Amino acid sequence: MRRVIAIALAGASLLGATSLAGCSSMSSVSWDMFKSAPPTVQVRLESNPPGADATTSLGAGCKTPCSVSVPAPEAPFTVAFALPKHQPVSVPVNVVRNPGDFTTPASVTTDPNPVFAELQPAIPPKPVRKPHRPKKPKPAAPAAAPAAAAAPAAGSPFPDPNTGKR
Questions:
Q1: Whole-angstrom Cα distance, residue 15 to residue 10?
Q2: How far apart are CA 123 and CA 131, in angstroms?
Q3: Is the distance from CB of 104 to CB of 92 less than 8 angstroms?
């Protein structure tokens, strides 16, 4: 146990010595070690029907049902859901930060979680109907006329239309 304490003190004194020496690159590297990574939030994305492309306004996305990990933003963000032959849906998501205390760590959650979208089928456009036009009556086929009716009778006061004679 004494060795562990001695090694820890030696490391701390070495850290202090390098920062006193003025080596800026070493001190900046050592302080970066103590910075915590930005918190991430796990967000569950679901849709009905499943299989929609869900994309957050933060850039992450997947095909529902799925889960994405996003860096915890400072402000609300949106999730856009898109599926062929369905109307797109956008759902706002709030970020809830719990500062924590001595007994509980700080946490970041989203509301709602899971983020759910009900996708409605796209209404197909109504077919364009042409105005109704009545059909033209077909001309009646001429009946075979008797040969006597085709030629004018002898002594007719009217001239023959084919020859122009009476």
A1: 9
A2: 23
A3: no
